[in-house]
């Protein structure tokens, strides 16, 4: 088997993207210098096309550019075309990715309409098959991808490593003059599982520009080490994500810590933040975190973000906190409409500040900013527009008036699409 890794470019310097092969998934391009793509995954029962289509639509409207669904049973596979039809009726054309484990070869063979309706297939080389069946079942899925013109993500995972690969590498390690530690062997098994599978897919006939790789682990330092290594050894497009990141602030912090380092080094073409939702919470939270990570790093712009002070003994009650929250909520609510109507509105900057110390300065740096009165300050709130003081708000309707100023700014400053 030829090794295509040795001539691959090194990761880019900070601020530069690592060169990668572009992969087309519906209207979305992953890699090849295209903007980094946000994706998410449903947690509904795919056999229920109504709830699954509804959640896909929610994720897409929140900004997920690719959505993955579980395809694990014949009934789930049969539901995929109906899910696609429902989304079309709702005006949602987000590409859907089928996540296959253990029986993907059977499902794609048994439900050709599913194979056609999906925009991409995801295969885990650690559980695509076992023993003598592994190669034939992997090949069967790749052949379906070739038949239907679909790209494939080969996604290795720390929790489901190819045990035959691990055993082989452990044997090799015993022969080294200076053996690697166990974590190094496991990382190598993860990377080799993905790379060897990709090379095998090419040998079967899947074009290089239809292959995306991922090597997911649940530890921050391990993830950074794995992706630095695989980025050095290939030019396939890479999907980033800290698997089983966790719930709430822990999941957000861990994912951001790992992905920010890699993204800053130019590694990564598409990302997912694998958060465990709070009970009853919307699945869209992981999309918001992914967007905010890319936007705060200056890699993409999705929606206006609010700069707001944390509050201190100078600030008055919770009013500025409530205003910041309501402004950010208003922006996110309006963005689906604004995104269609106005070019560049996602680059709008806003500031809600709580007192005179940094308030006027931060407000002047934003397109629209308000500096609320702190303790002992005059009961007035100057509003700055594009660096200049435009007006002063007073009274009980400051929040409503400031949001009205924001809406008017968007309507008058941004060029309407098709105008």
From TrEMBL:
Ranges where the record places region Disordered: 1-23
Cofactor: [4Fe-4S] cluster
IspG TIM-barrel domain residues: 23-290
GO annotation terms (biological process): isopentenyl diphosphate biosynthetic process, methylerythritol 4-phosphate pathway; terpenoid biosynthetic process
Enzyme category, top tier: oxidoreductase
Gene3D superfamilies: Dihydropteroate synthase-like (3.20.20.20), Sulfite Reductase Hemoprotein, domain 1 (3.30.413.10)
Cited Pfam families: GcpE, GcpE_C
Example of a GO MF term: 4-hydroxy-3-methylbut-2-enyl-diphosphate synthase activity (flavodoxin)
EC number(s) reported in the record: 1.17.7.3
Span of domain IspG C-terminal: 306-407
Pathway(s) per entry: Isoprenoid biosynthesis; isopentenyl diphosphate biosynthesis via DXP pathway; isopentenyl diphosphate from 1-deoxy-D-xylulose 5-phosphate: step 5/6
UniProt keyword terms in alphabetical order: 4Fe-4S, Iron, Iron-sulfur, Isoprene biosynthesis, Metal-binding, Oxidoreductase
Annotated cofactor note: Binds 1 [4Fe-4S] cluster.
Reactions catalysed, as given in the entry: (2E)-4-hydroxy-3-methylbut-2-enyl diphosphate + oxidized [flavodoxin] + H2O + 2 H(+) = 2-C-methyl-D-erythritol 2,4-cyclic diphosphate + reduced [flavodoxin]
Keyword Metal-binding: yes
Binding site for [4Fe-4S] cluster: 309, 312, 355, 362
Role of this protein: Converts 2C-methyl-D-erythritol 2,4-cyclodiphosphate (ME-2,4cPP) into 1-hydroxy-2-methyl-2-(E)-butenyl 4-diphosphate.
Family stated for the protein in its record: Belongs to the IspG family.
Family annotation (HAMAP family): IspG
Protein name per Swiss-Prot or TrEMBL: 4-hydroxy-3-methylbut-2-en-1-yl diphosphate synthase (flavodoxin)
């Amino acid at each position: 088997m030829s090794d295509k890794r040795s001539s691959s470019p090194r990761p880019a310097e900070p601020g530069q993207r690592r060169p990668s092969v572009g992969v087309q998934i519906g209207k979305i391009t992953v890699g090849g210098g295209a903007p980094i793509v946000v994706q998410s995954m449903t947690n509904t029962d795919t056999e229920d096309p109504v709830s699954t289509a509804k959640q896909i639509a929610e994720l897409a409207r929140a900004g997920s550019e690719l959505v993955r669904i579980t395809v694990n049973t014949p009934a789930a596979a049969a539901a995929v075309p109906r899910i696609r039809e429902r989304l079309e009726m709702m005006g949602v054309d987000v590409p859907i990715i089928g996540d296959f484990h253990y029986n993907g070869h059977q499902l794609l063979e048994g439900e050709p309409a599913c194979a056609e309706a999906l925009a991409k297939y995801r295969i885990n080389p650690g559980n695509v098959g076992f023993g003598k069946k592994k190669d034939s079942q992997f090949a069967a899925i790749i052949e379906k991808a070739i038949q239907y013109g679909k790209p494939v993500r080969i996604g290795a995972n720390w929790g489901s490593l190819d045990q035959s690969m691990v055993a082989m590498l452990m044997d090799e390690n015993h022969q080294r003059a200076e053996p690697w530690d166990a974590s190094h062997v496991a990382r190598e098994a993860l990377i080799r599982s993905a790379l060897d599978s990709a090379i095998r897919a090419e040998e079967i006939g899947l074009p290089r520009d239809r292959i995306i790789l991922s090597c997911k682990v649940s530890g921050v330092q391990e993830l950074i080490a794995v992706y630095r290594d695989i980025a050095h050894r290939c030019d396939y497009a890479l999907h980033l994500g800290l698997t089983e990141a966790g719930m709430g602030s822990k999941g957000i912090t861990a994912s951001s810590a790992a992905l920010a380092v890699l993204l800053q080094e130019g590694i990564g073409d598409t990302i997912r933040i694998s958060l465990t939702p709070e009970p009853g919470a919307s699945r869209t939270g992981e999309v918001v975190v992914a967007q905010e990570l890319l936007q705060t790093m200056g890699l993409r712009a999705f929606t206006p973000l609010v700069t707001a002070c944390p509050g201190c003994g100078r600030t008055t009650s919770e009013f500025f906190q409530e205003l910041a929250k309501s402004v950010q909520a208003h922006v996110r609510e309006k963005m689906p409409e604004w995104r269609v109507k106005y070019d560049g509105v996602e680059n709008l900057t806003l500031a809600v500040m709580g007192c005179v110390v940094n308030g006027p300065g931060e407000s002047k740096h934003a397109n629209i900013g308000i500096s609320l009165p702190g303790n002992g300050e005059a009961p007035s709130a100057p509003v700055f527009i594009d660096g200049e003081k435009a007006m002063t708000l007073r009274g009980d309707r400051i929040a409503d008036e400031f949001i009205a100023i924001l809406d008017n700014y968007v309507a008058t400053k941004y060029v309407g699409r098709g105008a």
